[in-house]
Structure formats: C-alpha cells, structure tokens
Amino acid sequence: MSSQKKPHLNLVVIGHVDHGKSTLMGRVLYEIGAVDERIIREYEEEAKKLGRETWKYAWVLDKLKEERERGLTIDLGFYKFETKKYMFTLIDAPGHRDFVKNMITGASQADCAMLVVSAKEGEYEAGISPAGQTREHVFLAKTMGINQLIVAINKMDTVNYSEERYNEVKNGISRLLRMVGYKVQEIPFVPTSAWYGDNIKEISKNTPWYKGSTLIDAFDTFKEPARPIDKPLRIPIQDVYSIRGVGTVPVGRVETGVLKVGDKIIFMPPKVSGEVKSIETHHTRIDQAIPGDNIGFNVKGVDKNQIRRGDVAGHVNNPPTVVSEFVGRIFVLYHPTAIAAGYTPVLHVHTATTPVTFAELIQKIDPRTGAVAEEKPAFIKQGDAAVVRFKPMKNVVVEKYQELPQLGRFAIRDSGRTIAAGTVIDLKKVE
Fold first, then answer.
1. CATH topology match: 8-219 vs 322-429
2. Structure pTM?
C-alpha cells in the first residue's frame, strides 16, 4: 500500500522531562525502519566515547533535527514515519526546551498524542506532582483539543518489569486523565523499555502479565479525525518567506476549510489580500489543501513584510475574526500567589502571541462540577477555574471555541511557565 493512500496523522509526544521521550521515539523510529541501523551504530560509537551510551536513540532525533536545520529552505520542522495503517508526522522532536509553548502553537496541530511516563522510583512521582510536567502536559493536551492518547509506561527495566509498579503508575495516570476528561477505557497503556526495546515492536518475554498490544500497534488504534472542510477557511501563519523567483510564501497549517489555487484570500488583522498562485506540501505541488495539511503557498499581491507569524488567512468573503477583547473560560495551572484584575501576562493562541490583561474576573467555577462558585471574585489562584474578560495589547484573530475550536483555544504564559489554558466563549469584534 503506498503511503499516498494512507491517512495522515500528526502525533505529539508529551511527558515530564527525563522520562525517556526522545529515547523512546528514537527507538520507535529505529524499530519501524525509519532510521538506518548504520546511523544508530555511528551514534552508539559516539555515545560510548562520551560514556553516555544510553543516549544513542535520543540522538537519532537530535541528529535528524540538525541535519534538517542545515539542509532546507522551507521546512516545517517535522519527522515522518509510517505504521500499517497510518502515515505519521512527529511534531517537534520531543526534547524541545520550550515544549509547552510549542504544544500550544504546534500541538494545536496534533491529532493525537503519546504520553511517556517513567515507571522509575521517584521519577513517576515527580512527574505527577503539582509542579510536574506530566500533569501540565496532560491538561494542555486536553485543552488544546487532543482527544486521542496512548500511554507508554517507560523504563520498566528499572523496576524489574514489576506488574505491581505498572498498575500503580497506570492507576495514578488514569486518575489524572479522567480528571481532565479523557475516556480512560479507550486508552492503551503499554509497559515499555526504550533502552531494551520491550513491547515496542514485539511483545516482551519480560512482561508475561501484559495482555495488550505493542506500542507500534497501539499507534494504529488512533482514529482518523474529522477534517472540517465545510467550515470557513482559516490558516494561522507560522512563518513567511520571500523566495527568489517565486515571491511571498506564507507557511502554516490549514485548520478549517479548503484552500484552492486561484482563491482570493485575506490576512487578518493586517487586512492584506492577494491571490493564491501555488500551494505545496512537503515539497509537492498540490491544487488544493484541506484541514491538517501543512503547506507553503505563494500569494500574489502581498509583500513579505506586510504579514507575519500569528496572522490568519481566510477567504475574502469570510475573513478571520479580529477581536479587541474576548471572554474565556480558563483553568489556572500554576501561579505562585493570586491573580487579580490588571494582571498582564502573555496570550498564546494558534500561532499568535501578545501581552494580554485580565480585564475582569467574571466568575469563579468549581472545576469538578462546572457550577459557578463565586460571582466577580477579587482574585483567582492555582487550581481554580474561572470566566475572565481578556484585553490583548494588540488586536488578534480568535474565534469562539463552539464555532471553530481550532482557533478558540488559548494559553496564558508568564516567565516561561504556563499559567492557564482555556477556551474562548465570547468576543468583541473589531469592525
């Protein structure tokens, strides 16, 4: 079966730092045959010299990333692999420093996620602690609309492949997943060792008690997401290039609608319009692009410096919605003290970022029941859910979550931490 015919899914790998995301993904790519054995051997030699043998699979991703960064003009920063059923694009090799931010801008693009959790004593506990990233990533994945998940309980070799420890970790993670609204009964939990390859391509003799599938087979339990082609066209811009002999080439992912060669499109907020001359995806020319496609498209009549990352393209007859204010329902993931009206952190929505003020705290909500706990609270703190009126410093494109969820999810960040994440429930349009 040619890869053209296989449905395409975007996969993001999440989980606490040091739980083995890079090593596990490197191992998966190696087992699937997406990476040549010779390359792995070279890394192994290199790693041995440095006395860092356990790094060889993690290096697979880093090396690929370096090679990519050297080689290409328009590159969407992704790595591909295929399973029996799907063509996967691995978004953002998972060792990324500012991962959460990428998860917001990048993983608003993911169709599905693999959560990697270490079974190692102390590591699992650190990940699910209030300050841990396991908790933060799970919450963000759900808020960003990633509804499909598989869980790899990794480093099983460090706990002697203990079924008891597997169950302890599985039950703890299940509680966390249930709390944010995942259907846990649909989620595969695979006990793995990235280092020894247990249950990645073949079922391991070390876990005779495990009755599920291998990790690679678990990827095929994902369902193909609906492609919202009947909705208005929205393409948040990630980058804009000016290519000699071609012209202005914005790059982004089609979130909703269909883009065709010859379409007249407008970029908002700047209100710049032009005509689509050509579209390409992964260096292949296409006549039309649908939701999920990562594309570069040449637009006639638009200059490179008229548009930038964070702008959104749509059809001229149904332009993206620009707002001066919006109301969001948020959950406060982290804050050292308390948040009052006037607080001004940074808003991340699709590919846009701008400082934003908490203009008014409208309601505090009980996160478990969704019922209103308090009208017009004086402040909100970590663990609270709330309805807030936000005023971005500059006009920004957002849509109501109910209408276009892809552009109605956002996160609030401050000094490198994600403070809150939420969805847009109401907006004040700029005419």
1. no
2. 0.66
